[in-house]
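Possible race condition, two jobs.
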Amino acid sequence: MAEHLKDDCLFCRMIIGAVPTLKLLETQYSLVFLDIGPLAEGHTLIIPKYHSNTMDEVPDEYLADILPLAKKVALALGTKDYNILQNNGAIAHQHVFHVHFHVIPKPNKTEGLGIAWSRNEPGLEALKAVQEKILARIQAAV
């Protein structure tokens, strides 16, 4: 198996062809296939051909391939409404610990992704403090 793939990972095994997929597209950096437990017809997964648990661990050249592929899938689905979903970590609802992106059609109110969004309103001063903290971390990383 390639050096950046893992023998015990379901998605890595799909990448090398050891587990069958309903492949839609493939590039040097990504594999695109139908989800076997779709939320709506055409629910698609896009996975980088690089094993990592979370998106922040994936090299940029792999990530740069993802959104153009998601756009192609979204256009091919022909639905006006859709979600692009990517989860990192168990409490963020990640179930397969190989980074993956969902393209989920939303053809009507009942099919597709359902989201309950719990908004907070911390106020401008609290948001400015968060902004400063994040900007400091970004500057430290550069």
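Job #2 (started ~2 s after job #1):
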Amino acid sequence: MRRRTTLLASCTALALALGATACGGGPVAAGGGGKSLSGQTITVAGVWSGSEQKNFQKVLDAFTEKTGASARFTSTGDNVSTVVGSKIEGGNAPDVVMVPQVGVLQQFAKKGWLKPLSRTAQQSVDANYASVWKKYGSVDGTLYGLYFKAAHKSTVWYSPDALDQAGVKPPKTYDAMLKAGHTVSDSGLAAFSVAGQDGWTLTDWFENIYLSQAGPEKYDALAAHKIKWTDPSVVEALTTLGRLFKDKQLIAGGQKGALNTDFPGSVEKVFGPEAQAGMVYEGDFVAGVAKDQFDKKIGQDADFFPFPAVDGGKAPVVSGGDAAVVLKDGKNQKAATRFLEYLATPEASAVWAGAGGFLSPNKKVDLASYGDDVTRETAKSLIAAGDSVRFDMSDQAPAAFGGTKGTGEWKLLQDFLRDPSDPKATAAELERAAAKAYQD
């Protein structure tokens, strides 16, 4: 997805120089200017590494160019809660954390670690974001988190050549998707590459099915553990997911192969030099791996269709995202506050959008900032969904249940992939794990 032409590079440079939102935009109120923070340094922590860290560095550099403040990024790995907690206890708290899970943001807020967003940043959120993003950034009515980077997790990526060879079109329903998968399989490739080694991908499968099948009210209730995981709606969604998991014709390498495939490997099985499957379900970030690792041209060699509707429900739009928060124990709260005000501007989003591998929930970001038509389409879909977007359910849960490798929902859905024969038993195990995590 992504590299924009020199026109975008010039546009971004012009925006930075003139303080414009994006090409054609008006002046940026937030973030300041005139290098008023020269000599100051902020530290930013987040889960990003590799190309994501490299591209976020461009945003940090743009902030430095605008304000004069230096910005250093530290990658925490997946266990952001543990790493940040230890840094706070050691008196070395970062100024800003890019929090990848609603549950972790809530945990930080309840421990008293966070500073509310400034009035300027709050005004930007009110004006430029659907209210659902304010909801997910707030705890007990106070807005702490600014969602800078979003993910569209309701996209099924496919090889156009594989579907053309099988003579199938992108499906509109879940049943049609499985039927198309059998046709792809009959043509010589497995239908789906499933990243079962990474439990988080399995939670995303479940969430899309559950949101479409059970509806948004049930989804919200389950995410808050206001209904139990033994609810019939959960069993029904697991049964629907199990139809895919138990069908060895549909999954590359069968269940065992899926359990030995991580996320990058699942993309490789579709878009790598030796294709083993025609489709892979995951978020818009699949495009980045396909392009950067396997030199695929997005929209030609790799494309997507929306996750299809299940049993007559609406097509789901599940999202994830990283929220910027300011820590009270950080050493430079003034510059950190200005940094979040900058992140709230379309200008900041345009920097990473031009680099690729990025979607913004900010409605004011010009779609022309994105480097290809497919990314523009996913960004447009995310914005158009408005308040019907639902945040990744596992990311809303306590980390012990929804965000820890080898335990909780991640492990139990891996167990279900291994043996999907008893959805009721799996639902009961999920409820036991959830009850403990939400109580703690």
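Residues 21 and 189 are 46 Å apart (CA to CA).
Logs attached separately.
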